[in-house]
Amino acid sequence: MRIRFLLVISLIPILVLLPEACSQTTHDISPTPDFTQTPTITSLIVSNQNVSGEITMNQTWSGTIYVTGDIWMNESVTLTIMPGTTILISAGSDDQEMGNALSGNWQPDTMGSLYTEDYAKTHIEIVGRIVAMGEPDRLIRFTSNSPTPTYADWSEIRLYPGSKIDYSVVEYSGRAGIAWQSHTDVQDANITISNSVIQHVFWGGIVAGPGSWDIIANNISDCGSEGIAIEPVAGEPYIAENTITNSTVGIATIQGSSATIDNNTLTDNIKGILSRGNDIITNNTISCPSQTIHEQSYSGYTFPYMVEPPIILFTGILIAENATTTIDFNNISDNQRGIAIGPNSLPTLTVRNNNFYKNAFNLWSDAYGVTIDAPNNWWGTVDSSEIANSIHDYYDDSNVGMVNFQPIAYIPIESAGIKK
After folding, report:
1. What is the spatial distance between Cα 60 and Cα 139, in angstroms, rounded to a whole number?
2. What phi and psi values does residue 99 have, to the nearest 5 degrees?
3. What is the pTM of this model?
């Protein structure tokens, strides 16, 4: 007799240790040659000053910079930030009061106060091509100037093509820690965020947009929505060696994206990965041992409830919509559902060579009529009846397709999980 439980699948729309340096050799995270850290005669050197408004020529920041209002520049200008610089951003105050001038048309207040024009006029954005290359012992820090900082003290950093953020800390922002700014040539974004700490963000930690994004070896935590979110027409982002904790979703992709999600550690997020694109998910360790809801509130709104229904289920990987996803060589443990396939989705999945440990259900499918092939996985046992009882499929709901789990692995997959 198969064990049956009634669970509700949720579809969401889309402290910290310094991470180790990236060991990847195929993705260059050195500064773009066009934007060096050495000031030129056309650069204005700014140190220990207040800054606000439009930047019309290249600038180099050092020391302590006090940002009192929105900062913006056109795509021909580069802001270079030297190692060890601290950028103190006015909390809940913006002397530019730009409103919708930077971000286009603002939506009505249906998704929370971070989408209102009033918020935009009182919370600072920094928009432009930024090359902030810190060093392990001389971090660059973007933070609130409040003596008691909290979520959404300022708004976000939005990057133009050619931006690089390395060995930096971004904290206490609202709409995002680091996001993308719309630009013309989406194929030439070339944005790298590496070796950095993004934390205490009310909405999303990193929000990647069009073009080429390398998001490598960052430590991301305490994000109300996603630690890393891939937005529409996002190209082929490379997301590797990050540690993401205590967020509603660790990594979320959108239909049309082709993300490589490799060698990340995702711990104590309500959803480890939400895949809706053509994604490759390999060699990750995804677990939620605490199964604790991590709440954060601002202006009457509380995550995770802004994106999660009242019944919250801790899930390693959630497959939604028409995802074409490969799930290979991962360790997935300590979740209510190891992998879940949402209703009204028509995914094409490859699920193989993974280790499942201590999940209430290893695989839960609500995909009507879709057969899932899941060969050569270690299910925590070699007993076929126990494996079947850890899977929800056709035998529990005749509207749902079957999960083919044969052949099974008879020992844990040694090469699954984080690559050393």
Report:
1. 16
2. 60, -125
3. 0.88
Q: Please indicate, yes or no, if residue 279 is contained in any of the structural domains.
A: yes
DSSP string, 383-402: -HHHHHHTEESTTT-TTBPP
Q: How many angstroms separate the CA atoms of 404 and 373, rounded?
A: 5
CA angle 330, 209, 96 (to 5 degrees): 130
Residue ranges making up the domain that contains 152: 44-404
| Residue at 1 is within a domain | no
Does 39 fall in a domain? no
Give the chain's domain count. 1
**Residue 244 near residue 237, CB atoms below 8 Å:** no
How far is it, in rounded angstroms, from Cα 243 to Cα 33?
Answer: 29
> Would you say 205 and 223 are in contact if contact means Cβ atoms under 8 Å apart?
yes
Domain assignment present for 58: yes
Taking the CB of residue 293, how many other CB atoms lie within 10 A of it? 13
pLDDT in 10s for each residue of the chain, 420 residues:
343 333 333 333 333 333 333 333 344 444 443 444 444 446 799 999 999 999 999 999 999 999 999 999 988 999 999 999 999 999 999 999 876 555 544 444 444 556 677 788 889 999 999 999 999 999 999 999 999 999 999 999 999 989 999 999 999 999 999 998 865 455 566 899 999 999 999 999 999 988 789 999 999 999 999 999 998 665 789 999 999 999 999 999 988 889 999 999 999 999 999 999 899 999 999 999 999 999 998 888 889 988 887 789 999 999 998 899 999 999 999 999 999 998 878 888 999 999 999 999 999 999 988 999 999 999 999 999 999 999 999 999 999 999 999 999 999 999 999 987
> What b-and-e string marks burial along 322-345, b requiring 16 or more CB atoms within 10 Å of the CB?
ebbbbbbbbbbbbbbbbbbbbeeb
Q: What is the spatial distance between Cα 329 and Cα 309, in angstroms, rounded to a whole number?
A: 30
Residues found in the chain: 420
For 21, 156, 181, the CA distances from 100, given in Å and listed in that order, are 38, 14, 14
Supply the DSSP symbol for 135: B
